[in-house]
Design brief:
The chain is of the alpha/beta class and 414 residues long. It has nine helices and 18 strands. The chain starts with 13 loop residues before the first strand and ends in a 12-residue tail after the last helix. Bound molecules: nicotinamide-adenine-dinucleotide. InterPro entries: Epimerase_deHydtase, NAD(P)-bd_dom_sf.
């Protein structure tokens, strides 16, 4: 699926706009849609079978953050049990209470019991993650899928010579996890901070992911959804062309262009401008390589455009512990007087008002996109072991799309 592009990089000198709150409050809503455009519509209504005795869980790493918290709520509403891992480096524990309150209200209205919601206050790079995963797994004796080498260990010496012990060794002990899928949000995301502290970003976003994947592999957990970003398109995002997933690949790929011509893409991207952007590209490459080496993985990278909005109750939203850099929290700091003005970067783009055009997506749509991706993989509907999808609206948005009386764009576009 393709999505509209941002229309340019920020010009070096910000123009300063005072924020007026006189616009219509109705216009400020960013209503979410209710259908998955990417995956089959029926998949989101087809959750993993949580009634089947040993209670599967979905593990959401970074699940108390902005996008994670909305995703956890939607997962619960779809009937999934959820295990959240979060170190609270950019979120607050009270988000957990808010998710619980909203989910229990939802299930109370339906007269149904709420699925389980577990939380571990942990850095996902911590050695304690092994104990957490152990707690959700058991051992099981299974038949080996095939004998692809001579089974020496199945030979036994008897009085009449050496014989095959056909009872032995066609079985093995394996770990079976109740965690049937993982959604990974745990990353640092400030473009500006990543330039000042690249090692901090590579350590969490890249090294953390590598070790985590190794751990998941040990526990046989191979249905994985990764939070990527439209930033992986690099310079292409400023060319004013629709961004197709095939324009950024990690292995050579052939695809049909709009006019039917066949195009071959080589791996790589031009013009990544920050360690944050590079970290997302690197993570995607690592995931794509892993999928080639072991096609039993089902990995979906979701490339987000600009998530905005909040849960309709207003109880969940974007409430970062660190200095905000995304558009809406920055606007909130101006509205509350913490910041005097809103800096808008870019005035000379080829757009009606000269400001950048961006593709905004409602955070609840984004949350549902993750569930659709997980469920599609679990149902075997995603054929390739690694796939990337854009999650955007495909509709370029100026400020009017957000309902404010100004045209916003902020410096830090994650
Ligand atoms: N918000 C955006 O505009 C945007 C756009 C594109 C991609 N993304 C990606 O989406 C993901 C989620 O973004 P968000 O806006 O919800 O960010 P967020 O900071 O609100 O959420 C991330 C959560 O992960 C937690 N976390 C970070 N490192 C951790 C670690 N080592 N162990 C455990 N928890 C950890 C944080 O405490 C936070 O709760 C990120 O990977 C981000 O790069 C975000």
């Amino acid at each position: 699926m393709e999505s509209a592009t941002n229309s340019g990089t920020a010009s070096p000198t910000p123009s300063v706009f005072s924020l007026s709150t006189t616009g219509s409050s109705e216009a400020a809503s960013t209503p979410d849609t209710h259908r998955s455009m990417l995956f089959d519509d029926d998949v989101a209504g087809d959750p993993l079978d949580i009634a089947a005795g040993n209670s599967p869980f979905i593990m959401v790493v970074g699940g108390l953050g902005y996008i994670g918290s909305h995703t956890v709520l939607e997962l619960l509403k779809e009937g999934y049990n959820v295990l959240i891992i979060d170190d609270l480096s950019n979120s607050y524990e009270n988000v957990l209470d808010r998710i619980k309150a909203l989910a229990s209200e939802h299930f109370a209205a339906q007269g149904k019991a709420m699925p389980s919601l577990h939380f571990q206050h942990l850095d996902y790079r911590s050695p304690a993650m092994r104990s957490v995963l152990a707690g959700y797994s058991s051992y099981s004796v299974v038949h080996k899928p095939s004998m692809n080498r001579f089974p020496y260990s199945a030979l036994q010496r008897t009085d009449s010579g050496i014989e095959m012990n056909d009872e032995a060794d066609d079985r093995m002990v394996t770990r079976v996890s109740r965690i049937t899928g993982v959604i990974h949000f745990a990353a640092y995301k400030s473009v500006e901070e990543s330039i000042r502290m690249p090692l901090r970003y590579y350590s969490n976003n890249v090294c953390g992911l590598v070790d985590f994947l190794g751990l998941l592999e040990e526990y046989g957990i191979k249905n994985f959804v990764f939070s990527s970003s439209a930033t992986v398109y690099g310079e292409m995002a400023n060319c004013g062309v629709p961004l197709r997933e095939e324009l950024c690949v990690h292995h050579p790929e052939t695809f049909q262009d709009h006019d039917g011509t066949e195009r071959r893409m080589s791996p790589g991207v031009i013009g990544l401008t920050s360690p944050y952007g590079r970290s997302k590209f690197m993570c995607e490459s690592i995931l794509a390589d892993l999928a080639v080496s072991d096609p039993s993985w089902s990995i979906t990278a979701l490339r987000y455009f600009n998530p905005v909005g909040c849960h309709e109750s207003g109880i969940l939203g974007e409430d970062p512990r660190q200095k905000p850099s995304n558009l809406i929290p920055v606007i909130a700091t101006v509205l509350t007087g913490t910041k005097p003005v809103l800096d808008i970067f870019g005035t000379d783009w080829n757009t009606p008002d000269g400001t950048a055009v961006r593709d905004f997506i409602h955070v609840v749509d984004l949350a549902r996109g993750h569930i659709a991706a997980l469920a599609a993989s679990a149902a075997g509907r995603v054929k390739a072991p690694f796939r990337a999808y854009n999650l955007g609206e495909s509709m370029p948005g100026h400020a009017e799309g957000l309902g404010w009386p100004y045209s916003p764009t902020v410096a830090d576009d994650t």
